[in-house]
């Protein structure tokens, strides 16, 4: 895979038009918060390329074409590399980071550094910014304060400092759950080539064998995990539907997440081959609070 070029300039006007953003382009907290939320409302998290055995290119021209000019989304490297580029162009001070995902793992687990996030320094304060962790992604800049709970429009989060590492947690309604942990070692675009290649191609990557999508809307979040389509509302209520066919899944991806499946025949074929195994874990529920489904990269 080729090294992502650093001199390419994404069409910012097209990006803002896609988001429907007409506000200030000054590098302020208000601009950052507005773009972070709008990005996640507009450009869905999804993994169709790994699922369909298609390459995931993370050079800027490819990201621009896929996330801005096509009816597609992407996972953490795609989403956050594009967002970092936009923020740099607007004058923000941004560093790229790598995290160890802890969702679904023991607190002491040593998972690989496989999730990209951003560190933004603004008005002498450090923030964590992330538009690529799927169904649990932080919808607003996260203040790096180990004692403060940050209530956002889509959930409560906190960032703890434990033994020299930062631990990002989300409140699920009853307990705090770890999302990922990280330090502030700065990464360059070339540093994401190897983990992106592993995530997109290795047989152990869950993105190769699952369909995952997520999108924020005004009062909640939509998530898709294989056959299970979930809408979580901010009042704690949940709607869930089991999608019975590949055609129903493709329709949901388009109508709910704004995603056009790139190869419908290949999608239908793989869906049918894997669906029986998925059925073992899919259980519908109607208007009941449920725990968040892990969907991060």
TrEMBL record:
Task: Name the InterPro entries on file.
Answer: Arylamine_N-AcTrfase, Papain-like_cys_pep_sf
Q: Which Gene3D superfamilies match?
A: Arylamine N-acetyltransferase, Cysteine proteinases
What domain of life does the native source organism fall in?
Answer: Bacteria
Q: What is the lineage of its organism?
A: Bacteria, Pseudomonadati, Pseudomonadota, Betaproteobacteria, Burkholderiales
Give the family this protein belongs to, as stated in its UniProt record.
Belongs to the arylamine N-acetyltransferase family.
**Pfam entry (one):** Acetyltransf_2
Keyword list, A-Z: Transferase
**What does the record give under GO molecular function?**
acetyltransferase activity
- Designated name of the protein: Putative N-hydroxyarylamine O-acetyltransferase
Organism this protein belongs to: Advenella mimigardefordensis (strain DSM 17166 / LMG 22922 / DPN7)
């Amino acid at each position: 895979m080729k090294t992502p070029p650093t001199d390419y300039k994404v069409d910012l006007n097209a990006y803002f038009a896609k988001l429907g953003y007409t506000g200030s382009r000054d590098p302020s907290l208000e601009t950052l918060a507005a773009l972070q939320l709008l990005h996640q409302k507009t450009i869905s998290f999804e993994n169709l390329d790994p699922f369909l055995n298609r390459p995931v290119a993370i050079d800027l021209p490819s990201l621009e074409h896929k996330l801005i000019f096509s009816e597609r989304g992407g996972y953490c490297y795609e989403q956050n590399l594009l967002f970092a580029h936009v923020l740099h162009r607007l004058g923000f001070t941004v560093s790229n980071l790598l995290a160890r995902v802890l969702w679904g793992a023991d607190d002491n687990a040593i998972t690989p550094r496989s999730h990209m996030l951003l560190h933004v320094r603004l008005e002498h304060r450090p923030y964590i910014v992330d538009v690529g962790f799927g169904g649990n992604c932080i919808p607003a800049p996260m203040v790096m304060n180990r004692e403060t709970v940050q209530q956002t429009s889509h959930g409560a989060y906190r960032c703890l400092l434990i033994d020299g590492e930062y631990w990002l947690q989300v409140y699920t309604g009853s307990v705090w759950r770890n999302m990922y942990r990280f330090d502030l070692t700065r990464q360059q675009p070339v540093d994401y080539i190897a983990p992106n290649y592993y995530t997109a191609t290795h047989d152990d990557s869950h993105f190769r064998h699952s369909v995952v999508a997520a999108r924020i809307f005004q009062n909640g979040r939509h998530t898709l995990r294989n056959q299970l389509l979930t809408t979580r509302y901010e009042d704690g209520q949940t709607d869930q539907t089991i999608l019975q066919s590949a055609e129903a899944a493709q329709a949901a991806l388009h109508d709910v997440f704004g995603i056009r499946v790139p190869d419908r025949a290949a999608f239908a074929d793989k869906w049918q081959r894997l669906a029986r195994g998925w059925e073992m874990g899919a259980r519908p529920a109607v208007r009941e609070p449920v725990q968040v489904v892990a969907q991060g990269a």
